[in-house]
Specification:
264 residues, mainly alpha, 9 helices, globular
């Protein structure tokens, strides 16, 4: 049974409030307090965002009753070990394909290095504490009577994570780019849940999330470009989604097999 300081309803409401405050604070700081594209304005917005992420993360940590989800992780069978290895490889490939080595060199020489780092850290802390923390725990409690409770919790919390990226439309991001961003955020959300359950910690997903978002333009603008052709997009992301779902279904079966273990 999942035990937190707060009920699943309170966890869910808290996540909604924290994200609502994030969008409100971001709007006020960008449109009113620190508007413009000067380095000073960008740095001030980054500091505000990071400060709020730390506060929100602390609130979420308290409501969750800590960093762990499970009192003890059930031993992974061979199938789950293979699948989590594949997921780890996929995430590494994602970083490489997104040009992480080149981004690292660009970041080091950027005038906005600290601002970009603060914004990326903010995303890793806030979004993981809310989506893989509050929301995952809330839905895992809500689906307690379902034999695939963690699978459904991963899908619904991942869906919320994807939908949150639709707000980038308000910042002027192209529709096609935003839709694709929301879809692959949903898929990544499921992979992040797999890592969260395997490690029984939010630390690793925060680190991965940070490195994915750590880009030279993250503090100054949203994603640019027109997106990928839909055919190629689904050819890439559909197998990744199926791998994530396969792990989650296998994890639920493994939990039932080790039903004598105690869960938070």
């Amino acid at each position: 049974m999942i035990q937190t300081r707060w009920s699943w309803q309170k966890l869910l409401i808290s996540a909604v409030i924290l994200f609502g405050l994030l969008f409100g604070i971001s709007f006020v700081s960008r449109a009113i307090l620190f508007s413009g594209h000067s380095e000073t304005a960008i740095y001030l917005r980054a500091v505000v965002r990071f400060t709020y992420a730390v506060i929100a993360g602390g609130i979420a940590y308290y409501g969750l009753g800590g960093n762990r989800l499970l009192k003890s992780v059930p031993p992974l069978n061979l199938f789950l070990k293979i699948m989590i290895t594949v997921i780890g490889v996929l995430l590494i490939l994602l970083l490489l394909v997104s040009g992480f080595p080149y981004r690292l060199l660009t970041m080091v020489h950027s005038n906005l290095f600290i601002a970009n780092t603060l914004v990326a850290l903010s995303a890793g802390v806030l979004e993981e504490f809310t989506c893989r923390g509050l929301l995952l725990s809330a839905f895992a409690q809500a689906f307690e009577r379902n034999k695939y409770r963690y699978t459904w919790a991963a899908v619904v919390s991942g869906g919320c994570f994807g939908l949150l990226h639709l707000f980038n439309l308000l910042a002027g991001q192209a529709l096609m780019t935003t839709l694709q961003q929301a879809i692959y955020a949903f898929v990544l959300g499921i992979l992040f849940v797999a890592i969260r359950l395997t490690t029984n910690s939010l630390v690793w997903v925060m680190i991965i999330h940070f490195f994915i978002d750590w880009q030279p333009t993250i503090s100054s603008q949203v994603m640019t470009g027109s997106g990928s052709p839909w055919g190629a997009f689904f050819i890439i992301w559909t197998p990744v989604l199926l791998i994530g779902l396969a792990f989650m279904i296998g994890f639920d079966k493994n939990v039932r097999w080790h039903s004598g273990l105690s869960f938070l």
